[in-house]
Amino acid sequence: MRLDKFLKVSRIIKRRSVAKEVADKGRIQINGKLAKSSSTLKVGDVLCIQFGNKRLEVKVTELKDSTKKEDATQMYEILSEEKIRLEDLKE
Length: 91
Fold this sequence. Notes:
Strand content: 25-35%
Helix content: 10-25%
Domain RNA-binding S4: 1-64
GO molecular function: ribosomal large subunit binding; rRNA binding; tRNA binding
Radius of gyration: 13 Å
Protein name: RQC P-site tRNA stabilizing factor
Order of helices and strands: HHEEEEEH
CATH topology: Structural Genomics Hypothetical 15.5 Kd Protein In mrcA-pckA Intergenic Region, Chain A
Keywords: Protein biosynthesis, RNA-binding, rRNA-binding, tRNA-binding
InterPro entries: RqcP, S4_RNA-bd, S4_RNA-bd_sf
Oligomer: single chain
């Protein structure tokens, strides 16, 4: 499954166009490597996503083409979530 579609279906990012923009700006890594919106995900992959002042690390547990809102969180497991200081972003 494409990265941008996974982010939308899992509801980590609300819209696919926003997911594509975040990925194409180099703010997402898959297993430690920079990812593009078209990158292919597999179960077990670890994503590191940087949204503004927050860094989220999740492990892909399921791939589904569509989900109900209550089932979306079953598609991933949160490994870590941290706030980033502005000074750290400038480095």
